[in-house]
Amino acid sequence: MFAPLAPSPEGMSPGAIACGLANACRFGGQTPRYYSVAQHSVLVALLAPDALDVQRYALLHDAEEAFGLPDLPTPMKPFFPQFVEAQERIGRMALDRYGVDPDLKRVVKPYDTLALAIEKRDLKEASEGYLHDLPAPPGWVRIRPLTPRPAERLFRAAMARVFGDGRPVDRGWLSAQAGFDLRGIG
Question: How much is the pTM?
């Protein structure tokens, strides 16, 4: 059990983060097929540079969502300051537990935005009316949405690779995993 208002870093194991993010659906569940925050986080790591510190931040950039605190749309955040504060506290705690520099947010944000552009293209069939200012999504990667258990396995494998083995998530590694169609590999 994890208490969002009294968080403990001991409860933030890779398994707990993977399980929580795999069960958290992106876009509030408003996609034709289930797509998790866990799979999104692996995509952001793939898009980020091969630098391990940057990929570590990318994998954990939405860690607070693993513990029952889903993302709020930016226009709503001023109306829920205590919720936003709790999200930030849990996010910082996860970064601290894994020794990740919180200042890397500015480095990872463009890759998070690029992931959103890919997600819009691949997952949001009726999205012409919003998300206009996104970069062009690259053609070399396509999302194949995973259900929660495979998404959890993907995220755990990425955590083991980046944190445990000290190797980056790259196209070659990801091409052997479920969840993405990568072109130009091999």
Answer: 0.93
